[in-house]
Amino acid sequence: MALSFYALLEAALLVLNGIAILHRERFLKKYGLGAPSHSFDGSNSVKDQVVSLIFAVQTVMRMPLIAINIVVIVFKLILG
């Protein structure tokens, strides 16, 4: 299989889907990624930034991911 732009987009979609379905209580708290600390002093750790990214993807990208997944499924069904 050749590496194409479509394959890269599909891989990014799969990663976003994986982030979107992470369960906060069962998965994230087990690894100490409970809730982001919202401090505005400029000393955000990498862990806080990762937690903020996960929560942002779960909150903002939920509806667009549903629509994009439907488009990709239809595209795969039509073109194979």
The structural class is mainly alpha
Q: C-alpha Rg, in Å?
A: 16 Å
- Bin the helical content: 55-70%
The shape is elongated
Mean pLDDT, all residues: 82
Topology as a string of helices (H) and strands (E)? HHHH
What's the N-to-C terminus distance?
14 Å
What's the count of strands? 0
Individual helix count: 4
Which band does the percent of strand residues land in? under 5%
Largest sheet: none
Uncertain runs are none
Q: Which characteristics define this entry?
A:
80 residues; mainly alpha; protein transport; membrane; Yos1; transmembrane helix
Structure report:
This is Immediate early response 3-interacting protein 1. It is found in: Membrane. The protein is mainly α. The protein has a domain at 44-79. It is 68% helix and 0% strand. It is built from four helices and no strands. The protein has helices at residues 5-20, 24-28, 46-60, 62-79. Helix 1 packs across helix 4. The longest helix is centred in the last third of the chain and has 18 residues, at 62-79. The radius of gyration is 16 Å and the shape is elongated. The chain starts with a helix and ends with a helix. The relative contact order is 0.13.
Describe what is shown at a glance:
This protein has 80 residues and is mostly helical. The protein has a domain at 44-79.
Write the layout of secondary structure elements.
Layout (H helix, E strand, L loop, with lengths): L4 H16 L3 H5 L17 H15 L1 H18 L1
Helix pairs in contact: 1-4
GO biological process, one term: endoplasmic reticulum to Golgi vesicle-mediated transport
Pfam family, one: Yos1
Family: Belongs to the YOS1 family.
